[in-house]
Amino acid sequence: MRRRLCGLGLGGSVIGWRLTKQNILEVLEPKKEQNLCSFRKFSAFSILFAALSFSVPKQAGTMDSPNIAIVYGGSQGTMRNSTLICAPIMAESVDKMVIEIGKAKAFGADLVEIRLDSLKAFDPHQDLQTLIKGSTLPTLFTYRPTWEGGQYDGDEKTRQDALRLAMEFGADYIDVELQVAREFNDSIDGKKPEKFKVVVSSHNYQTTPSVEDLGNLVAQIQAAGADIVKFATTAVDITDVARVFQIAVHSQVPIIALVMGERGLISRILCAKFGGYLTFGTLESGIVSAPGQPTINDLLHLYKFRQIGPDTKVFGVIGKPVGHSKSPILYNEAFKSVGFNGVYLHLLVDDIANFLQTYSSADFAGFSVTIPHKEAALKCCDEVDPVAKSIGAVNCIIRRQSDGKLLGFNTDYVGAISAIEDGLQGSLNTSSVTGSPLAGKLFIVIGAGGAGKALAYGAKEKGARVVIANRTYDRARELADTIGGDALSLADLDKFHPEDGMILANTTSIGMHPKVDDTPISKSSPHKFMEDVGRFGTWFSPGQHALKSYSLVFDAVYTPKITRLLREAEESGAIIVTGIEMFVGQAYDQFEKFTGLPAPKEQFRKVMADYS
After folding, report:
1. Among residues 409, 414, 413, which one has the least CA distance to residue 386?
2. Where does the record locate the signal sequence feature (predicted)?
């Protein structure tokens, strides 16, 4: 097998290459005179992830895994990679475990991890035979002790005896912890069935070590007699995962290299791209054997896991929070429908500059940007579209494949303003109106962040009179001065209605799941006791019907589809426009920028209708 290190300009045959500390240093530190300090500094940026553009990672299916055709991308359902999906089985009784194994097969798993430490009662001789004979999938037996994050707190000899018995009864794999692996492997020397494999594992529940330390760890696991190397670390930041990718893509032995936690989710999906032996997929959301595990359903149907391969381009939505986003549903379905070899992920990012600097290979080809990173994203781009520059925020980043430069765009205002105009035109019931129905309207924008800037810019371009309402008045004033509008404190919004027929647009996350009872302006004002209209001057009046003055209300939040703000606005007689309309509208443009292909618009709307 031949690989190329594109970013380093290195290449050559690495057949039979095994990962050791020395190998890592030879790849990452080609100049022998380079000291450790410079190695750490340099590898953290350009060198560390040059290897992520390897053209052909080793495939997991070389170690007696199912005979799978390794073909990637496209829309054909038969195409799949060789990275296995393993379902953790954690029922409290053997009978329930057998039932769950059947479910795992029906859901699409390739094997099951039977967690013996979850059983309330366990008779090794009887229960192991029942589980092995009753399993319709290959079995991986794990009996995790408390000192390695499991539930077993009994005698160590008893635990290892049970694992040896599982091997004798016909288990396909067993998992043994690095701390006791040498002892265990010595005890089964010469007794292993031909196709039986020992997974030697190590778990770090606090952090993800450096590349050098991970390399040392892998070398220790190999030296302990592992047939398959497994390590799991914890992501403090999403950039931690890149160090694990670096190790996985170099390994020429079967390796399970995963990162726990929400920030580590990408390791559980992109392991199929970087040559991981398996990933874990659960039967149900929240029922996990380690933090951050996706469901089998999400792996197969949301992320199209079987179609991910070495040449798959990676896209994603950058945000914090980000788990609520429906973008992966939309884009992954669209990629599949047009035969585009890409995968779109949730990316929980704390520092967007650090993220973009870390994942700098051409494989990480484009990103949608959401709250709170849209303004910071603009500063990270090498080139910015004039409209995005005028708005002062970016919601779409493309990595130009010819030179790796980051190009910034803003597609928010197009989708939102078009949806609002459509809503108003529908209410006017006429197509003869020239110009925008927003012209001359008083347009209230809640929020002065990236989306707020986009809508304020778009409304102003359409001839609206724009007022910015924000929790921090100074930020509202700053944006208002930039676009030539007025400013208002959000606290005063519920008693601000100088005229009828106004437009209200919420661009903040107020009302987003799970805080669905929150709203930036309620139907009934908390100031309803103030009955003297004159106290507020010509711009203010009593707030008993705070939403009555709006002819149309738009909410950028789309989880839930109908927020409290929209529900109460509709009850007050206003036209409502959901965040779905903005989401789909801006997604058309982003899809075309990501792929260079026309957006499948009808499918976009169908997907969102199915999931909203």
Report:
1. 409
2. none
pTM of the model: 0.80
* Distance, CA of 196 to CA of 194 (rounded, Å): 6
Q: Is the model's pLDDT at 370 over the cut of 60?
A: yes
Residue type, 3: R
Q: What are 413's two structure tokens? A: 């205002």
Residue in 418, 425, 422, 415 with CA at minimum distance from that of residue 451: 415
Looking at 1.10.10.10, 3.40.1160.10, 3.40.50.720, 3.40.50.10260, the CATH number of the domain 414-577 comes to 3.40.50.720
As a whole number of angstroms, the distance between CA 92 and CA 99 comes to 12
> C-alpha angle with apex 196: 195 to 202, nearest 5 degrees?
135
Residue-wise pLDDT for 279-335, tens only, equals 999 999 989 999 999 999 999 999 999 999 999 999 999 999 999 899 999 999 999
- Asked whether the domain spanning 414-577 has the same topology as the one spanning 50-311, the reply is no
Could you give the C-alpha distances from 70 to 79, 83, 86, 195, 251, in angstroms and in order?
7, 10, 18, 22, 19
- Domains in the chain: boundaries: 50-311, 335-410+585-611, 414-577
The two structure tokens encoding residue 348:
């929980």
Model pLDDT for residues 549-574, shown as the tens digit of each residue: 999 999 999 889 999 999 999 999 99
Residues taking part in catalysis: 203, 230, 374, 412
The third-level CATH classification (topology) of the domain covering 50-311 is TIM Barrel (3.20.20)
Q: Does domain 335-410+585-611 have CATH number 3.40.50.10860?
A: yes
User: Which residue, chain included where needed, has tokens 């001839």?
Assistant: 463
Mean pLDDT of 57-84: 47
Please determine, for residue 20, whether its predicted confidence score (pLDDT) is greater than 80.
Answer: no
pLDDT over 90, % of the chain: 75
Question: pLDDT value at position 429?
Answer: 56
